Amino acid sequence: QIVHLADYRPTDFVLERVDLTFELDPTNTKVDARLIFHRREGVDLSAPLVLDGDELALSGLLFDQKDVPASQYDATPESLIIRDLPAEAPFEITITTHINPEANTQLMGLYRTNGIYCTQCEAEGFRRITYFPDRPDVLAPYTITIIGDKAANPVMLSNGNFLGGAGYDEGRAFAAWFDPHPKPSYLFALVAGDLAVVEDTFVTMSEREVTLKIYVEHGNESRTAYAMDALKRSMKWDEERFGREYDLDIFMIVAVSDFNMGAMENKGLNVFNDKYVLADPETATDQDYANIEAIIAHEYFHNWTGNRITCRDWFQLCLKEGLTVYRDHEFSADQRSRPVKRIAEVRHLRSDQFPEDGGPLAHPVRPTTYREINNFYTTTVYQKGSEVTGMIATLLGMDDFKAGMDLYFERHDGQAVTVEDYVKCFEDVSGRDLAQFSLWYSQAGTPLVNVSTEYDQTSATFKLSLEQMVPATPGQPDKQPMHIPLSFALILDNGAIADATSVKGGEVTGDVLHLTDRRQTFTFTGIASRPVLSLNRSFSAPVNIAFTQTPADLAHIARHDTDLFSRWQALTDLAIPNLTKAARDAREGHEVTCDPALIAALLEAAGDDTLEPAFRAQVLALPSEADIGRELGGNNDPEAIHTGRNAVLKLIADAGEDLFKRLFSDMKADSAYSPDAESAGKRALKAAALTYLAYAENSPQRAAEAFGAADNMTELSQALTLLAHRFPEASETTGALASFLTRFDANPLVIDKWFSLQATMPGEDALARVKALIDHPRYNAGNPNRVRALVGMYAFSNPTGFNRRDGEGYRFLAGQILEIDPKNPQLAARILTSMRSWRSLEPTRADQARDALMTIERSPSLSTDVRDIVERMLKG
Ligand code: ARG
Ligand code: ZN
């Protein structure tokens, strides 16, 4: 069952209203769905009503409250088809199903987590609750009645506004909810159980008071403060920046401990993986706080980009996800440091999206075909989708971008729309033709831009020649040239930026070059001395740039560019050839060396007290082993990359030891822990200094002391990670790991960290360690966070430990996938994507990886999720 974008057509019947009644029972919940439909104008009288199901059994069917004769319908677990329905008049269908939340280990539809009833319906989970036109272009208002055991379910929630509740019958109670905003089924939610609540309020821009509630397990109330604050800041920001006001009397967030993804934007009732809600200094890291802020914002922003305006079909997923990621990025950039945020985004894009785009799972931001939609909640749809919206803002300028967004909200409120509808709004406000630009939605692969420059002193002319190439990807052998907006600066000898008003060869708006042809030369005149080109500033386009600049030019950019992102990029570009050469040298058993110019530039930036500490920490975090592997581009030996990189780190550490000692003491906090970005930046720089000092001193002493002295989880887990990764054999490490476990035994989110940091310990012993941890009493194969912390982190984030030459890592993963798949196919498929770059390994490892993938493929009982991923990985 492959779905094609080209096959889209509207439903034959229009859904007018939905009225659901749930009688909750852990193993036998009764669902009555009363649906009012009418036949769409012009639809053939013979057309039946076709409803989706998934593992359902029909236990009752009424038409206008009367029994339907068996001859008039067909029910299977996957569908309910009803014939002989009225020509025009609205009619009512009442469907009864019984479902078993306790047995629902897929965590799609209605399930139980720690005694709490909870739902996840995106993308196609609603059809596991009742038969329904389960697609995003079917919108209706919902009335929900929940009936449940009173003692077990003091809290019973659904979307919209609360209508009322009371005792129902012996020992039971009911609660009723009404959501007036027409919505598709994927935004439905129900939560019931015994939860604690923390309340607050927000007054909107039109002075309406909204009740805010965060529901958590009892005992966790005090850990919701940061999430609540982030929610209020998100609501305010969306009003100020996008003019978007909240539209119900109440906004609720529920934190649950078993969840397949990060969170879900159900209308008025967001459901979160608890790791993105709960935080206090003792148990959450700075990164956790930043994630909570970003995800709370993301789900809240969906209320307009996703809920009020939704997707016509699932091919349009980037319409809500890419745009909402763009919005949450902007929010975090405004709340924190914009350049530091941008550096983090680009690191993430390069480490996750670029490999996807360059491997067998590559697909366009808007795919045209899928077998399993759950496999398309990808970094391409989310992160590259966000970059595409960012490029629209760059191309149009902020004023037209804002006008385009306003038009989008005005024109399409209440509709289920397409990427074309979205782009049209920007064309209409700007008068710009975005046809070529739209190739970003349809062409997969990361474009490569080759750059060469030429300066002529006598004519004071600078020539910039660009050539773009979009690589072939599965199903797309030939590509058209794209519209690539490249922000640039010409930096003069004295560090000033040249005024580039006289440019020929293509469109230039502000500091943006528009590369639209395959080859294009821009000629700048009136440039009195040879400039240094800084290109793709702020990462204005998600492309690879091939441009060989001298270390001196890169150091010049690193020192003078007014765009901090570009300064970081220049230092990265300076580091890359050193790291790739180190990997090659290590592989051949040669001594690893490092260009003193790199060391000098890094230490200069790291020691520059006029720069914010968070930025300097980013500078000191060299490209990762995965980054280096990508730069090498194939025939990769993760062991050599690791050895080479560590040797470079050691050279930097030795050269900068004095500086690192100074930073380690300068960055000490002078007050109690606060999660704000500035304090977090200081901690990050301090941690970087500590890491280099561990290399320089080659002793666990300092890290062990830092572990003992830490009064917050950020520093505690950093010290423990450093101990475990750098000094696995030391008694300090063994002791620290044991004491950490004892101290945080009652806190699952912290125990996840304990599993993760061990899963990512490099080297040969990693697999034995991971296998032992699978048998640890705290391991829980049914909890997605725990599985991701151990198996996921091992496969995604332990290059040497996982990519063993003997292939045991791959065979272990294959075994895990086959174990997880029958219970939770989404989780299994997601973890399996860790092998998406298997073809870039050296031949021995690549063969082992292929064999492991083929073992999975041969399994007779794979889920569609895993089958889709494994087949694409072997084919592409
Ligand atoms: N819409 C959610 C978010 O990005 C993600 C839900 C993903 N669900 C899934 N079954 N793949 O906020
Ligand atoms: Zn989202």
UniProtKB/TrEMBL annotation:
Peptidase M1 alanyl aminopeptidase C-terminal domain segment(s): 552-875
Gene Ontology BP terms: proteolysis
EC number: 3.4.11.2
Catalytic activity from the UniProt record: Release of an N-terminal amino acid, Xaa-|-Yaa- from a peptide, amide or arylamide. Xaa is preferably Ala, but may be most amino acids including Pro (slow action). When a terminal hydrophobic residue is followed by a prolyl residue, the two may be released as an intact Xaa-Pro dipeptide
Database matches in InterPro entries: Aminopeptidase_N-like_N (IPR045357), Aminopeptidase_N-like_N_sf (IPR042097), PepN_Ig-like_sf (IPR038438), Peptidase_M1 (IPR001930), Peptidase_M1_dom (IPR014782), Peptidase_M1_pepN (IPR012779), Peptidase_M1_pepN_C (IPR024601), Peptidase_M1_pepN_C_sf (IPR037144)
The protein's required cofactors: Zn(2+)
Gene3D superfamilies per the UniProt record, alphabetical: 2.60.40.1840, 3.30.2010.30, Neutral Protease Domain 2 (1.10.390.10), Peptidase M1, alanyl aminopeptidase, C-terminal domain (1.25.50.10), tricorn interacting facor f3 domain (2.60.40.1730)
Swiss-Prot/TrEMBL keywords: Aminopeptidase, Hydrolase, Metal-binding, Metalloprotease, Protease, Zinc
Domain called Peptidase M1 membrane alanine aminopeptidase: residue spans: 226-437
Assigned protein family: Belongs to the peptidase M1 family.
Name used for this protein in its record: Aminopeptidase N
Source species of the chain: Rhizobium soli
